[in-house]
Design brief:
The chain has 212 residues and is an all-alpha fold. 68% of the residues lie in helices and 0% in strands. It folds into two domains: 107 residues, Rna Polymerase Sigma Factor, Chain: A (Orthogonal Bundle), CATH 1.10.1740; 89 residues, Arc Repressor Mutant, subunit A (Orthogonal Bundle), CATH 1.10.10. It is built from nine helices and no strands.
């Protein structure tokens, strides 16, 4: 897999693709930029592979599915509407989920009676993938907060301590702790650019509580 940090076109200056949002990368792909397409693949490959393995239960089948998914991405990326309700990451997860379900159904052509059960079971894998993505993003953003705000939020939402207990541990007044929690949540919401189109089931409960 190519390194997304230092890729460049022959006629352009080096681009740090990690600084580009998904939307910016997709826009470049839509314009026919093959290097941006490779960067997009590099960004999502491992996540889509893990999702495929969790559904298909076979690494080789998952590898084949991922190749088909990213080929379809190259051919159909123009179908994604950046002004629509779904983020690109949500869109590609859904495309991947549907592809894996199709593969699984073809392996079991006579299991029409079990179809609902199959979809219900594997949809959990799709939701888990989204939860992991949001939770990982939240954990990273927490680390960018001032230490006292980070500690207060972690103690309150993850350790489930009361404001009074946090006050004792941080040696702060309860009013100060409430202020730390309020400012920390406001900063996280701004950084997260929280997408209201995501269902609550797609988000880790602790992350969802912080963003409320």
């Amino acid at each position: 897999m190519i390194d997304s940090l230092a890729m460049q076109n022959e006629t352009s200056t080096p681009i740090d693709f990690n600084t580009l949002s998904d939307d910016q990368l997709v826009a470049k792909v839509v314009s026919g930029d093959n290097i941006s397409y490779q960067a997009l693949v590099a960004r999502f490959y491992t996540k889509i592979w893990r999702l495929s393995v969790s559904i298909l239960k076979d690494e080789q089948e998952a590898e084949d599915a991922v190749q088909e998914i990213f080929l379809a991405l190259w051919q159909n990326v123009k179908n994604w509407d950046p002004k629509g309700s779904a983020k690109f990451s949500t869109w590609i997860y859904r495309v991947s989920f549907n592809k894996c379900i199709d593969i699984k159904r073809k392996k079991k052509p006579d299991t029409h009676g079990d179809e609902i059960e199959i979809v219900s079971e594997d949809k959990n894998a799709y939701q888990t993938a989204l939860q992991k993505e949001v939770t990982a993003k939240m954990a990273g953003l927490l680390q960018t907060l001032p230490q006292m705000q980070r500690n207060a939020l972690h103690m309150y939402y993850y350790d489930e301590l009361t404001v009074d207990e946090i006050s004792d541990k941080l040696e702060k007044t309860e009013q100060s702790v409430r202020s730390l929690l309020k400012r920390g949540k406001a900063t996280l919401k701004e950084k997260m650019q929280y997408d209201n189109t995501l269902n609550s089931s797609d988000i880790d409960s602790n992350a969802l509580n912080i963003l409320r």
